[in-house]
């Protein structure tokens, strides 16, 4: 598999005079051609900040990349100037945000928003860019592109606006698509349409997708690999099957157990007591220690290293240390097809 | 819950709520609902945005006046003319929990005052001491500490705020609570905490819930019976087990098949029922069956006649011509 993006030891903080919020701490992951990597975690876990740092979209100040590198084609994006980044955003990496209402410019016709990048970065003439724009609208399933291209965002429904966002993100045939909660604001039937569309595009254009979501159903439907984030750290990564059927981190266990299954019998939901850590003064050891049912002394003081449990799965948890007591995954994971 | 032992708490018949936009346009947000809510049950109301589920919940509580139809609460008409005093007595028995834990708590009031507002209005505490004692009890009931009482809403996380909203609703000892998307704004692990709390309270205080949500798996988990709304109309009502195992209405089937299940192997083999387009505008809904413009099985009769919402087997109601004896044959061609 060809590696298209490599994030090494990335740490991002937001600083003010008196305090520092350590939003992302020492995150490391790779992205391969044609795959979908899902980053899951609760709000404040650092998943959006991670993706925004890839594009250098974080306002600096107050944001600051404290350490790490982000390698695209062997070049470090952290070292690029704003001008160079504009070029990369326009050509190499497309992005889709959660809220299609606020991420489109309400005062600009759709056509201008789609063609902007084409004219600027691909040096197309206006006429050719508009033809390509209509082609893109057609590709993302917007009927009647000739009329639609001259309309404003408010004339589109939520699902249609998200299709427009996807069309803009795809305009330059990017190798990488970053999708930050792309279906969270949409209804389930529209969500199914958009996820289907993303898969189809990925097949045809070999795009690598980073999908940020908190919906584990969407992850199961779309992802090839999963990275689980908690308290600014990546606590576990693996293939989608490994994460759902053989998770090793207690936070992953808790996350999977707190989901109601569409076809399960009625019982109390497993919840994770407490709430996530305050990243102004993140815990010295494992970020999940305060809520972990299997916490040991060492967890409060030392961050565990990643331990590989297969060629594709690695987990940062002291339970995997050979000196730790053996704890089995407490839950019957996956959708649980046994109804009765 | 057995069908012969259950008592109707809320009876909704032909309930309509229209919003007039201007002289020519009216939004038919709720267009003729018929269903009952039994004492002690959780009735889940699901549907996509714009289907009218929130409007239905608010109209049932008389937060909106009904355009037509009737709601009976323990046999008493909810929307009839009531004196100020009658309304006050009445309101105490029905409460609401809102979706947005950030917008539904007054940021300038302390938690004590937020929770005690209902106690004050309904004169449920006789002294300052009793007032504070009751609030402390409520805080503990919802899993907060009494020290939290003197703080302001901004000092709490989303999950904690939702607990404050629940404590406020419980303060006046209601019998019936409408919870409008009470967990949608919360993270998954926090959602489970709040849902477990709601279920525990229901058992302890014999509460009846109307639980409005768009998350079908959570609704299945919490509800005894579920109603599916589409464009102001009720498409189907059944016990939650029956509805998820044996959905009848084509829209319910579409909706269930669209929900991704957190099981990768199952997802890879699942067939989705495709549905065309998006929900039409409630200003000008389609003639006949409102779902017919997107229904994979729509027939001529669907455009001509509005399907009757009827009980096709015990406890399973559906509004679809496919299950109407007069038209059944039309769909077997």
From TrEMBL, chain A:
Gene Ontology molecular-function annotations: ATP binding; ATP hydrolysis activity
Membrane disposition: Peripheral membrane protein
Compartment(s): Cell membrane
Residues of the ABC transporter domain: 5-256
InterPro entries on file: AAA+_ATPase, ABC_Ni/Peptide_Import, ABC_transporter-like_ATP-bd, ABC_transporter-like_CS, Oligopep_ABC_C, P-loop_NTPase
NCBIfam families xref list: oligo_HPY
Descriptive protein name: Oligopeptide transport system ATP-binding protein
UniProtKB/TrEMBL annotation, chain B:
Gene3D superfamilies, alphabetized: P-loop containing nucleotide triphosphate hydrolases
GO molecular function, one term: ATP binding
Keywords per UniProt: ATP-binding, Nucleotide-binding, Transport
Protein name: Peptide/nickel transport system ATP-binding protein
One GO-annotated biological process of the protein: peptide transport
SUPFAM superfamilies xrefs: P-loop containing nucleoside triphosphate hydrolases
Domain of life: Bacteria
Organism of origin: Pseudogracilibacillus auburnensis
InterPro entries, per database record: AAA+_ATPase (IPR003593), ABC_transp_ATP-bind (IPR050319), ABC_transporter-like_ATP-bd (IPR003439), ABC_transporter-like_CS (IPR017871), Oligopep_ABC_C (IPR013563), P-loop_NTPase (IPR027417)
């Amino acid at each position: 598999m060809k590696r298209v993006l490599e994030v090494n030891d990335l740490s991002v903080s937001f600083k003010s005079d008196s305090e520092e919020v350590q939003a992302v701490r020492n995150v490391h992951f790779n992205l391969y051609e044609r795959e979908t990597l899902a980053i899951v975690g609760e709000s404040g876990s650092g998943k959006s900040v991670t993706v925004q740092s890839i594009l250098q979209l974080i306002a600096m100040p107050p944001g600051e990349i404290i350490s790490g590198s982000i390698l695209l084609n062997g070049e470090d994006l952290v070292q690029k100037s704003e001008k160079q980044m504009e070029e990369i955003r326009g050509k190499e990496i497309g992005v889709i945000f959660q809220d299609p209402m606020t991420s489109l410019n309400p005062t600009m016709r759709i056509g201008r928003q789609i063609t902007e990048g084409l004219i600027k970065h691909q040096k197309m003439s206006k006429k050719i860019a508009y033809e390509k724009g209509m082609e893109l609208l057609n590709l993302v399933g917007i009927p009647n592109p000739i009329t639609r291209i001259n309309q404003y965002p408010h004339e589109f429904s939520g699902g249609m606006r998200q299709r427009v966002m996807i069309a803009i993100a795809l305009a330059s045939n990017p190798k990488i698509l970053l999708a930050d909660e792309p279906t969270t604001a949409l209804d389930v039937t529209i969500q199914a349409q958009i996820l289907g569309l993303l898969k189809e595009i990925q097949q045809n254009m070999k795009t690598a997708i980073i999908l940020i979501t908190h919906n584990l159903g969407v992850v199961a439907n779309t992802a090839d690999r999963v990275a689980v984030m908690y308290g600014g750290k990546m606590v576990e990564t693996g293939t989608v099957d490994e994460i759902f059927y053989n998770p090793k981190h207690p936070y992953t266990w808790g996350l999977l157990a707190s989901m109601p299954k569409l076809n399960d019998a009625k019982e109390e939901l497993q919840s994770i007591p407490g709430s996530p850590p305050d990243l102004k003064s993140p815990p010295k050891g494992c970020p999940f220690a305060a809520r972990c049912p299997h916490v040991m002394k060492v967890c409060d003081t030392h961050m565990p290293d990643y331990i590989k449990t297969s060629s594709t799965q690695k987990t940062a948890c002291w339970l995997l240390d050979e000196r730790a007591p053996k704890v089995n995954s407490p839950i019957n994971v996956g959708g649980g097809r046994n109804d009765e | 819950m057995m069908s012969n032992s259950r008592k109707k708490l809320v009876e909704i018949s032909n309930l309509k709520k229209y919003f007039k936009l201007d002289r020519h346009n009216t939004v038919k947000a709720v267009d003729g609902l018929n269903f009952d809510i039994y004492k002690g049950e959780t009735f889940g109301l699901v549907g996509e945005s714009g289907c009218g589920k929130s409007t239905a919940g608010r109209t049932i509580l008389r937060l909106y006046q009904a355009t037509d139809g009737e709601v009976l609460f323990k046999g008493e008409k909810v929307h009839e003319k009531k004196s100020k005093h009658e309304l006050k007595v009445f309101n105490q028995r029905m409460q609401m929990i809102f979706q947005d834990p950030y917008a539904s708590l007054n940021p300038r009031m302390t938690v004590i005052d937020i929770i005690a507002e209902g106690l004050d209005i309904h004169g449920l505490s006789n002294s300052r001491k009793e007032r504070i004692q009751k609030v402390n009890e409520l805080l503990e009931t919802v899993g907060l500490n009494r020290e939290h009482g003197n703080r302001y809403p901004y000092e709490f996380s989303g999950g904690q705020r939702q607990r404050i909203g629940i404590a406020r609703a419980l303060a006046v000892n209601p019998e019936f609570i409408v919870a409008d998307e009470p967990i949608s704004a919360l993270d998954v692990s926090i959602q489970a905490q709040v849902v477990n709390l709601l279920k525990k309270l229901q058992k302890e205080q014999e509460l009846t819930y109307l639980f409005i949500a768009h998350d079908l798996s959570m609704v299945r988990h919490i509800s005894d019976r579920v109603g599916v709304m589409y464009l102001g109309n009720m498409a189907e009502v059944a016990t939650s087990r029956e509805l998820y195992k044996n959905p009848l209405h084509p829209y319910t089937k579409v909706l269930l098949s669209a929900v991704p299940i957190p099981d990768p192997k199952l997802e890879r083999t699942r067939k989705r029922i495709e549905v065309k387009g998006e929900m039409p505008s409630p200003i000008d809904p389609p003639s006949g069956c409102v779902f017919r413009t997107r229904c994979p099985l729509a027939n001529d009769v669907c455009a001509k006649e509005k399907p009757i919402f009827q009980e096709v087997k015990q406890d399973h109601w559906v509004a679809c011509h496919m299950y109407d004896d007069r038209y059944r044959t039309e769909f077997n061609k």
